[in-house]
Amino acid sequence: MAPHVKIKPRLWQIMTLNTGFRPITTESRYRGRFAPSPTGPLHLGSLMAAIGSWLLARHARGEWLIRIEDVDTPRCIAGIEEDQLRTLAGFGLHSDLPVIRQSARQEAYRAALQSLLNTGDAFRCRCSRSDLRDTGGIHRHCVSQPSGHAEAIRLRIPDGLAIAIDDAVQGHFVQALDRDVGDFVLFRSDALWAYQLAVVVDDAAQQITHVVRGADLLDSAPRQRFLQQRLALPTTHYSHLPLVLDSDGNKLSKSSLALPVDGKNPIPAMSAVWGLLGQIEPIKVASPEAWLLEAVRRFDPLKIPRSTSTGSCPPCHGRV
Fold this sequence. Notes:
Layout: H1 9-15, E1 31-34, H2 44-59, E2 63-68, H3 80-90, E3 100-101, H4 106-119, E4 122-125, E5 152-155, E6 162-167, E7 171-176, H5 177-180, E8 185-187, H6 195-205, E9 210-214, H7 221-230, E10 237-241, E11 243-246, H8 267-276, H9 288-298, E12 309-313
Parallel strand pairs: 1-2, 2-3, 9-10, 11-12
Antiparallel strand pairs: 4-5, 5-8, 6-7
Helix pairs in contact: 1-4, 2-8, 4-6, 6-7
């Protein structure tokens, strides 16, 4: 196994350059975040991640940040970021620090990637998807004559490596990275940064201590933990919330029923999220600010369903 990377002060300075980050000042040292991608309007599933992460942060007397994950630029839609932030504001949700955007973080990603290349933990690869067809897309070594026209850069996964995550919602989760994931991409062959590298670098730079998100990202947590270890970065705690499904059992983001939530009429959607988070007694107030205050008072994290999906969103003909 390759040695752990020791980050030099220069690398850490680059990773936090021009972001306005500041140290955590809350007594619990809890800092969470909500990190939407500007690929479409927020729906009930994304609102559940936003409110769930906000409630867990406030329950711990911690801070809650918003980060725009726009690293996959071909999928980003003009105007959606502004729409998402307006919608969150309509639900009373505001970042405790200035919102940052991954598109402004290129130098930090380059510094982290170069560090991994220097230590041999990352390597250049021209294997295409068709080259890896026989291994189910899992990369363990480069083929003798790769067919890719451009290089990607991958993280080297040692043989026999298994990573365990103790998730606050889903429980103990173990993944054999060599067998189930393989050497995964950090920099794509289309010259875009991979999600796994960007999120690890940004969570460290923002001093995120607790990552709360949907259960569809549970299998990314072991990759991110190993990458944190390779970069000698602090590891984060994880809570993966159940996914909201439509009436056919599909994840909302993949469903034609993923209607936008309505920031101008927020209480119905907030009430729906409250129930999906396992909180039984309804909150009856008129404004989102009053709803959030009462929700913090009543919220019980132990009631969050211990499953990867919860309930279903029935067909509807208007915004939630």
